[in-house]
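Protocol step 4 of 6: structure prediction from sequence.
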Amino acid sequence: MRKSYEIKVEMSSGINVDVDGDSLTFTKGNSTISRKISIPFVKVSTSGNEILFSCQKTNKKKIAEIKAQVAHLKNIFLGLQERFIYELEVCNVHFPMTVKVDGSKLVITNFLGEKVPRSAQILEGVEIKIEGSKIKVISADIEKAGQTAANIEKASKVTEKDRRIFQDGIFITKKPEAIK
């Protein structure tokens, strides 16, 4: 067991952070992303444009948890600078399906000739652009963008049919680039 461990994360310029207990709220322009960081025995503090994680007694698991939170924070900083974009494609072999945004849902009609439309939840802070058979999911928060793309893909899943024949659906074709 190590004595103490601390790591500093430097924020990009122009990002404001508000600390409220174990919740951090990052703001830049009109984009706001909140993140709850609750790691037992780890103190999170800010000074200037740095976030400091410090722990008195650590082990490998605690260090891994801290580094995971640091990776999430780097995604937040990148998302506030430029938005994350997931690209999906509508593929239909049997029946032409239509896709439209209706409030906080994406509605898929005529999927495999079904009479009842399917719908996928669009999370708050996510923008959907439909351009022909291409769908773009855009958000500053990579987790919300990824979950919305997964919701759309899951809503168009074919069940109880042979996937080799019924290849209809909406599929993720491009994910955002990873941070290096």
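Step 5 (inspection) to follow. The radius of gyration is 21 Å.
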